[in-house]
Design brief:
The chain is of the alpha+beta class. Helices cover 37% and strands 22% of the residues. It holds the Pfam family Pkinase.
Length: 252
Amino acid sequence: MLVRGSYKIIPIEDMGGGSFGFVQKVEVYNQKDHLCGLFAMKTMKSNAREIESFRRRFVREGHLQAKCSHPNIVQIYICDLESVEPWFVMELGEIDVEKLIINGKFPKKERLKCILDLLLGMSHIHQQKLLHRDIKPSNMVKVGDKYKIADFGLVKDTVSSPETTPLTAIGQGMGTPGFLAPEAVFGHFSDQSDIYAIGTFLEYMCYLDEELTRKLAPIINKCRAHVPSDRYQSVNQILKIFLPIYEEGMNA
């Protein structure tokens, strides 16, 4: 059992992790020992805490994710980002979208709902002057009846830290192949590089669905244009074109 402020946190399952932190499914109890529910807790790895640049990135991840309060973004509830062992507790995803696609248990209406939730969440992220930089199906999770954007590990604040740090230099593993825009390979990130990744995400959502492929192909092709200026210039532009497709599919 872990005591964090006025909360008691009991880890019940390891859920994996990334370069800087590990994630556990946890039970959270308040000071009256009432169960608050099941959550996911991300804690900074001990070996990463010794490297100041890694610590800054982990703390930044927590701050930026907490900043994005939106129904389609995984919410952080409690945290201590200044402690020797930084951590935060957030909503628990039931399953990620990549697994739903692989399992084949992802009906068309759910796919359309997922795309809408992705676009709404990404629109909010960009309104906050942030770039996600790692949009992909495994970073979108189902929470109740909503799909939510997760993993802010590569999120960039374009206002407070516009420069590229050594950790985001060429060849440092920034982003995911296939979802990474051509210019992003050279460290040039923008709203349009996120939009490129959205296009690849939509392509995955069309898996084994010829009708959806036909309807989304024009959106996908424009999102994934080689030149950033040839892509949609905002997520809201994609939303405007996608909404009639969504409404038609949901009413079918």
